[in-house]
What we know:
Elements: H1 13-18, E1 47-51, E2 54-58, H2 69-87, H3 92-103, E3 108-114, E4 118-124, E5 132-137, E6 143-147, E7 164-171, E8 177-184, E9 192-197, E10 203-208, E11 217-218, E12 224-229, E13 247-252, E14 261-265, E15 279-284, E16 290-296, E17 303-309, E18 321-324, E19 330-336, E20 339-344, E21 352-357, E22 367-370, E23 376-377, E24 386-388, E25 392-399, E26 402-409, E27 426-430, E28 438-443, E29 450-455, E30 460-463, E31 478-486, E32 492-500, E33 511-515, H4 532-536, E34 540-544, H5 554-558, H6 566-581, E35 590-595, H7 598-608, E36 615-619, H8 634-641, H9 647-656, E37 670-676, H10 684-697, E38 704-709, H11 721-738
Parallel strand pairs: 33-34, 33-35, 35-36, 36-37, 37-38
Antiparallel strand pairs: 1-2, 3-4, 4-5, 5-6, 7-8, 8-9, 9-10, 11-12, 12-13, 13-14, 15-16, 16-17, 17-18, 19-20, 20-21, 21-22, 23-25, 24-25, 25-26, 27-28, 28-29, 29-30, 31-32, 32-34
Helix pairs in contact: 3-11, 6-7
Amino acid sequence: MRVPRLPLLPMAFAALLLTAPHSNLPSQSASSSTASTSPPAAAVKPVTDDYYGTKVVDPYRYMENLKDPEVQAWMKAQNDYTRAVLASLPGRAQLLARIQELDQAVPRVFAERLPGDLYLIRKLLPTEDVPKLYLRQGLKGEDRLVVDPEKVTLAASSQGKGKNVIQYFAPSLDNKYVAAGIAPGGSETDTEIHFFETASGRELGDVVPRAWNGEPNWLPDNRSLVYTKLQKLPPGAPATEIKRKRRSYLHVLGTDAEQDTAVFGYEAVPAISVDPQYVAYVVAQPKSDYALGAISNGNSRNSLFYVEPVAALGKTNSAWRKVADFSDDVSDIEIHGNDLYLLTYKDAPRYKVLRLDARQPDLASAETVVPPSAAVVASAQPATALHPAQDALYVTLLDGGINRVLRVPYGPHPQLQEPALPVKGNVGFFTDPRLPGGLVFMMSWAKAYKIYAYDPQTKQVTDTKLQPAGPYDDPSIIESEEVKAPSYDGTLVPLSITYPKNIKRDGSNPTLLDGYGAAGISKLPYFFPRWQAWYEQGGVYAVCHARGGGEYGEEWHLAGKGSTKPNTWRDFIACAQYLIDNKYTSPQRLAGTGASAGGILIGQAITERPDLFGAAIDVVGCSDMLRQETTLNGASTIPEFGSTKTEDGFKTLLAMSPYHHIQDRTAYPAILLETGINDPRVDPMQMAKMAARLQAATASGKPVLLRVDYAGGHGQIGGTKTQTQETLADEWSFLLWQFGAPEFQQHR
């Protein structure tokens, strides 16, 4: 079951395969002569808040109104300046050409295996900008186009926001239809579910609006499905209300989606009280008579779970039975037949798996089928660790930053087995309860992904060739290593380092240190051919697995959550110091980066230790934490960060808020801040306020640039291939310019 916890920057495997880490506008032909000597200064209009006797001044509160013409004009002028500066860097055009060459060698594919030897394939061709959806008969069959998102007409309110992108898709159980969630330019709140006939690609005409994280689940009649959507706001309602009162609905093909019956969630079941801030979700699996309902309070790891016969959906409100409460610390449930498989961290901070009868879901009678161990039961997120196939449950483990897979046969007292995998790194396991084994996606820090198949009869993992082998997928010039950096309190923090072979440890290498450290999400190995362009510049790429993430289970998460959040950026600082002390780089050639919740990490790292970095990249980053909960997505992040509605919560948020730790007349590193105007997760005002404050405060003379993507949303979500390529060219050119690389210095 995929409970939509809505982390600030989801790293689902399929999204990694086909979308960009960040997104931005295509490059423009501006030259250095078109740029002014400095970005436009922002007007200071201080607002003072009194939090429990502590007065906090906010000089740019007015920027929270993105409809204000003054704010719009300032952001546009900032972006124009940034575009002109970056376009003027001499080496950028050649670097972009190399990224494009590496990135466009072969198609990039994500696939689902279906009964009947069918494969539903999301494919991005070298000549195209967004992936399309195809159906293939057999591994060597021809691909038949089913969904071209650019040809789908969305609501008039979505026009002009950017290119349409498939956010998710689900085939009916007989494979005759597919439901696809499509959104423009990363604007997830505008996602619509459209329905297509797989044989012809014909659109059926049904449209479900407001389907952010809708995740449709088809029912056995192949004419109906359950899904989740946002409420329809009345005129004049604040935008922050849009995510409240979430419900799951039953839709029947050929009917008006606005008349669909609510089957679970806020006020849908009288006997189940649901907080209006919570997310409600229903999953129905093939080959099972039961559906699962989940209630999640945002980014927290635990959820409230119920079970109901599939036949009762939409017909009665009295058949739901509770399986687990919030206090049971259950993160996920998958269903196979009459068995429920529960992932829990109760008395097991690195998680364990329980088995329970859906017909009598008494948690006290559950059997432990995967006991806790030194490895974490998790992939990038714990909620992606359980994969039911026809023959067995497959469980993903995270062991020292590397994924392993367990095969757990169905029934009581299973004998655990571990398939041998050909790649040590990031493993995405995709199963169908109607088919044995599954597809296995694998990549490492130095190898691009391939799509394998695991056959439980032969116990072999073989390359399906679904992902064509590219000439740049396995570069010989790159190697990686895993080390541990001692943090300020003695905690050893995992640090992954990838670099060109035979680099000199003399402190001269341009280095980018990445980190996240939030919501129990782990940063797993990944490599795309376009990254070779960075390594060809002599670049080092390192990842700090800071506390707050999930690399060592729930204990690691809790050690960087709420009041313990300072551990996150201090771990990052420790990893930066390790790279310097061991001569990978020097402060003048070290950059830090973080995205989304990782904005806290990078923002606090540069405000606490500005001397440690020559540059920084802050991507759609959380910055003003005292105002986070007032934004559209803010309520869902309260379980992770806290709330100003309590004094302790205020103190916790103030301590982690980068915006409030910026000091005047301080020599800050060069900083590139990025936002997407359609971002529903981290409001664009956060990057705007952060940029304005840094530009006013810095005394280093180094640039602080704000980039605004007017056709993008939250980082990679909804991004196109062109946006990816342009963004990387801009980011790496910016860094190489600041690091003094001769080819990237502006002409005087």
